[in-house]
Amino acid sequence: FEAFLHLYPKNALAGNAQYWLGETFFARNRYADAAVAFADGFQNYRDSQKAPDNLFKLGVSLAKLKKKKDACTAFASFAREYPTVAETMNKRLDAEVKALACQ
Description:
By secondary structure, the chain is mainly alpha-helical.
């Protein structure tokens, strides 16, 4: 994924590649790297179909890093910016927010 992003940063699938790069880090418990990858995916590819997923997984990664305030902020941003997507992921979002006791 890194090679693809390096060679084709403006490709229509770059946001997708950035998300999956984050997932590879997350799957290997490299949560700090995952958080950076998901944040980059959200910030750099806001129009990508994976932008909501990048923001949500940023929150999950931050939660794994015990960065509660930042994770809660990411989840609140996700719910605010993607209300229709958030609705379909409502149970997962609610579980994450509840586990962190977000305000």
